[in-house]
TrEMBL record:
Subcellular localization: Cytoplasm
Family note: Belongs to the P-Pant transferase superfamily. AcpS family.
Keywords: Cytoplasm, Fatty acid biosynthesis, Fatty acid metabolism, Lipid biosynthesis, Lipid metabolism, Magnesium, Metal-binding, Transferase
Enzyme class: transferase
Protein name listed in UniProt: Holo-[acyl-carrier-protein] synthase
Length: 126
C-alpha cells in the first residue's frame, strides 16, 4: 500500500445552507439524486455540507479537478454503512492516472461545521 494523496475540507453548514436556499438549482449540479435523499427523505443541510466537503477533499487528494464533474464523485455508504466515494467519468480517469486504486472517506459534522477527510491509495499486489 502507498498513499497517493490526502485531502481534507471543512464547510460552514449555515453558510452552505444559505447558498443552497439562494440557488436552488445548485443542489442538482452538486449532488446526484441518491445523494440528495436518505430513506426517501431530503437530506439535511449538515449531511449535504459533509458530502460537498468530501468531494472537495477528494479533489485535493487527487491533486486537481481537471475533467472532473460533481456527479463523477458520489458519496454513499458501503455495506457496513460507512461513508464511501464512488468514482466515475473524469474522477475515475484522474484517479487511474495517479495510480489510485482505493479511496477512504471519513465524514463528520458538529457545532455548525462539516468536515471530510479522504485518503487516496495505491494497493500493490504482494
Amino acid at each position: 500500500m502507498a498513499i497517493v494523496g490526502i485531502g481534507v475540507d471543512v464547510v460552514d453548514v449555515a453558510r452552505f445552507a444559505r447558498t443552497l436556499e439562494r440557488t436552488p438549482r445548485l443542489r442538482g449540479r452538486l449532488f446526484t439524486d441518491a445523494e440528495l435523499l436518505r430513506d426517501g427523505e431530503p437530506r439535511r443541510a449538515e449531511s449535504l455540507a459533509a458530502r460537498f466537503a468530501a468531494k472537495e477533499a477528494l479533489i485535493k487528494a487527487l491533486g486537481g479537478s481537471t475533467g472532473v464533474g460533481w456527479h463523477d464523485m458520489v458519496v454513499g455508504a458501503d455495506d457496513q454503512r460507512a461513508p464511501s466515494l464512488t468514482l466515475s467519468g473524469g474522477a475515475a480517469l484522474l484517479a487511474e492516472s495517479r495510480g489510485v486504486t482505493d479511496v477512504h472517506l471519513s465524514l463528520s459534522h458538529d457545532a455548525g461545521v462539516a468536515t471530510a477527510f479522504v485518503v487516496a491509495e495505491e494497493v500493490r499486489a504482494p
